[in-house]
Design goal:
alpha+beta; homodimer; elongated
Chain lengths: 499, 499
């Protein structure tokens, strides 16, 4: 192996990726287990698709080109077929269902959790690998299936320790927006780009307020830095129609209203007779009756006309899990934490393969974002993991004896390790300290001769240093150093750890 | 979205990849949790590296070329740098340690579990994505660190329910083999290819027996199909020297001997004075004293001269976890299950980056293989997950009522779901059956009027069909169908499920 200096690679994590430490791994593990418990109780079954799929199966070829979309990591197999790393968990599920439809019950309710990859420009807090936790119901066109995933999302937030008022599942329907698009005349295939511009503009309402959105719907918007974003070039009449819908939310008139009252307001809009709009409203009504009949209140699940969800493939109800807990934005201004997941109905994804429409709906949690939120409100219960007790090695020939001490402690459920390096006593103490070990166990020749072991409390030093306790206070409660008989090792360690 | 028939992609999982179903997911989840518990008790800390690394950081550029090795999945980033999917968990760990050495304690003991990828030709049971569970100690040159991972591997097998005699950790040392290579004169840089040929030949001892290995060490071997594999072209004298080492194991003379007796036999070999050989033997002696002093017997951890471990990067002790449980090979012949993991010392991997040697050792479990083995001996404890109770929807307007029944059952820890599809009663029963539901709950207009619910036991039909019970036997023990008051739903369901 060459250690020739010029040929040495630089040790650096790849751009847009990150290493994950013990605290986050343990915290996320706990959180995932709680989510899983809820999904299992609901009768959803786990299933996993591989990380790599044929690019065409993911629907990620660029239009009219033989190359995959630049947004996905892709590579050619030895037989020339293009493969891609999954960029979400929904496209692989659609492939799985299309391939195995005969074997699966209808509807097929499943959940999965895993890493997904985006070949995009990384930024602060924006990584190219992140984890999602999805639940999907494939094979039901009923709004009850949409309502179920919303109620499951609400139950999940409560299982994670969030309280009413800290989270809310916001629900809307793409058909409402489709009806509005029809009303303002954006119906042709050739209007696709403008429809997207409208959706994207509406999705920015929180940040740009109505004045900014209005500019993006019309001639375009020039931001503070002078950058110009072209607009959708809608007529003033069309913009007024859109404002009607937005105004429902922005006016504050809906604040505190029940979902059914909100739906009545929807019905009064000037494009309230459009047939798509009417369908969408009816589906929301069905969902609301189920929420209401099942005892979910509008502070848990709320009909919200401002929910858009960017993805093109949604065809019906869309939802978003919003955390209302306060935090600050990049400029230090107080804001709500915001979305930690979302989803909706995607009736066309399986049809890509089979030609037959298979109605489907699902909900996806952004695992890192949810974990950050739970940490923020002190609900990310890290497993209460204490650093291990370290048994020092004073005499290399007696490692077997030290090992048996460690084993005895482990048998009693105490994390413990024997020092396995090659350094002397002083470096071993330093190691135990860097490790965060609460206690070290020492048995030199003198102690061995008397059948004794010494237990040193390393927390004393650090607590004194941080002013938590005076030496006297501390010594009164806990031992700093104690010598006990060998067979009292376990009880003395337990006492010191207050177990 | 185009559903134009010609443009439809075929729904198929990519070549060499697979989907994973509920049973395996739950079984592996349980198994991983048990391994984790052992590693945590030992004081190893979790850490995770990303799935994607710079190709040079993984050491996977082809010699003298600017292209990555064909064995890894690689792609170029937008800045021209090559990225690769990790092919094991060790190379990314070496990068991580080299990058973060200052922050980490020495020695640094960590564990991680995750998927790795090989761009190789798939075969039956050989996939291009598989899971490993690794534990490593970086920063200790002491044989105690090697011994620790071996003892941890043994403890792990027992925590998984395997008994003495069902598993064994086999230990050898690369320095023994290096000494042998020196003895037979394969020491030059230019002998690299021949050394590898020798190692590969020895690694095939189980399958080819000594006669086959002997041919590969000499002029080469022609197999039954007529294919010729070139040999290492060793002299007869060299082959006799190698046979001495192999014979130690093959003769059966070591059978039942203690590790220290085996080491004494090693010492009697004709190249027993070679200094590398002597070093290797001394390290094995140190490890054995720790095994012995810690109470591990040679039926748990055995010194075994036939252990090679193919990877080039090992520099000292090597180990393998062998399962002795009986199974059959492809031809139906009885064989031992074989290796489910292994590892060894790799003192040069961090030095690739830093130029300074950082001694390291580790152990890696092949998760799927271990899970298969546990299933084989009935130790793959699947979580005892019952399929959910299904509450049928007879009246769409009363979904709220049905939902509350489901909620009540869940609150009592019973998996339950309300049917969320759009089909009628008959299809709902079929769904419940396909789902494996033990019970369905039915409340039509008549039952509602009387404040009652009907509970149907679906297991009756299938047990009758499979001849497990006569209708009379069955009915005597359990209800096939019962009508109870609404507020008796939970107790009746519990009774039917024998909870």
């Amino acid at each position: 192996m060459s250690t020739d200096k010029q040929n040495r690679p630089k040790a650096r994590v790849a751009k847009g990726f990150r290493d994950i430490g013990a605290e986050e791994i343990r915290g996320v593990r706990q959180m995932l287990a709680k989510i899983q418990t809820v999904y299992e109780a609901y009768g959803f079954e786990p299933v996993e698709q591989p990380f790599i799929e044929y690019t065409d199966a993911l629907g990620k070829f660029l239009p009219d080109q033989d190359r995959p979309n630049a947004g996905v990591f892709s590579f050619q197999d030895d037989d020339g077929q293009w493969l891609s790393l999954r960029y979400d968990l929904t496209a692989p599920l659609a492939r799985y269902v299309a391939e195995n439809q005969q074997k699966l019950p209808t509807p097929y309710r499943s959940y999965r959790q895993g890493w997904v990859f985006r070949n995009e420009k990384p930024g602060p807090g924006r990584f190219r690998q992140f984890m999602q936790f999805d639940a999907d119901t494939v094979g039901s066109a009923s709004p009850a299936a949409d309502a179920e995933v919303c109620m499951m999302a609400a139950d999940t937030m409560e299982a994670l320790g969030l309280e009413r008022g800290q989270y809310r599942i916001n629900v809307n329907n793409r058909k409402i927006l489709d009806g509005m698009m029809e009303h303002i005349g954006l119906v042709e295939e050739s209007d696709q780009a403008r429809r997207l511009t409208v959706l994207r503009a509406l999705d920015k309402l929180d940040r740009l307020k109505w004045s900014g959105v209005e500019a993006l719907l019309g001639d375009g918007r020039t931001d503070e830095s002078g950058d110009h974003t072209p607009g959708a070039q809608l007529s003033p009449v069309s913009i007024v129609a859109i404002r009607e819908l937005i105004w429902l939310k922005q006016s504050g008139d809906l604040e505190g209203k029940s979902n059914s009252a909100i739906l009545r307001e929807y019905g009064k809009l000037s494009f309230g007779a459009n047939s798509k709009f009417v369908d969408g409203l009816a589906e929301l009504g069905d969902m609301d009756r189920l929420f209401d009949g099942s005892g979910y209140s509008s502070d848990q699940i709320a009909i919200d006309p401002s929910i858009i969800r960017g993805l093109e493939y949604y065809t019906g109800p869309v939802f978003e899990c919003e955390l209302l807990i306060p935090t600050t934005d990049e400029d230090g201004k107080p804001v709500r934490f915001g979305s930690v997941g979302g989803g909706g109905r995607y009736d066309d994804l399986v049809a890509r393969f089979t030609g037959q429409q298979v109605p489907a709906t699902g909900f996806s949690i952004g695992v890192s974002r949810l974990y950050s939120a739970l940490k923020l409100v002190g609900k990310a219960e890290e497993l209460n993991v204490t650093a291990p007790v370290v048994v020092l090695v004073l005499d290399k020939d007696r490692q077997g004896d030290y090992w048996r001490m460690v084993q005895t402690l482990r048998t009693e459920g105490i994390r413990a390790e024997m020092y396995v390096g090659t350094a002397g006593m002083k470096a071993q103490m330093k190691y135990a300290d860097k490790r965060g070990a609460p206690l070290v166990v020492i048995q030199g020749g003198d102690e061995q001769a008397k059948g004794e072991v010494q237990i040193k409390d390393l927390r004393l030093g650090s607590e004194l240093a941080s002013g938590i306790a005076s030496r006297e206070e501390y010594a009164a409660q806990r031992l700093a150093q104690v010598t006990v008989k060998e067979d009292e090792l376990v009880s003395a360690v337990k006492k010191a750890l207050s177990l």
